[in-house]
Amino acid sequence: MKRVLILWVLALMVATPISAQVLNNIDEIAPFSEGMAAVRKGSQWGFVNEAGKLVIEFRDDIYVNPKADETKADILGVKYPKFNEGLCLIKNTVEDGVPVYGFIDKTGTVVIKPQFLNIYPFKDGFTTAVLFDKTIKGENEFKLQIFEYKFFDVRVSTSGEITNYFDKRDHIQMTVSRYEIPEIGAKILNKNLVATHNVNLSWTINNLETKK
């Protein structure tokens, strides 16, 4: 009888989980995307999987915009954190608080460092964006470094490779009081064609195959 009782207790322990992860005090839960849902505590966001397990710890660099215009396809339309082709937007700041954007993967690892002023969602492994580049040009008479800022419309892969540079962009103010998110002047038409917007407001269709 004692042996039967022990076996019954062991069977009950196997059938019933001893403990389960419980996430308390969640302030906001975003819709699932690619098997992950963003959850917010205070000003920080993390991600849970479909089993409810926290798989990306709470952090303060995940991009979110509660006032997003969801009719926009670029940064301005991203209301909630979500995964797109295995990547989620993160945000950092440069130059007097101007935001730049990059991506983490589903492990929370930064796979594309924040370097874009604006970017479209990925599709079939690629997207287009406005790239911010800052290089040291020299020093002034007070031995202070002088920087040169360059901006380009680019095509970028989900691995972070800049595969194509298109037009150089000018007239982007890098002080937060005057800064406006620039429109992206290049958009993917298919895997080989990218349209670029010209200064005369017309479009040029670029065949990437012929440029190799």
From TrEMBL:
Protein name: WG repeat-containing protein
Natural source organism: marine sediment metagenome
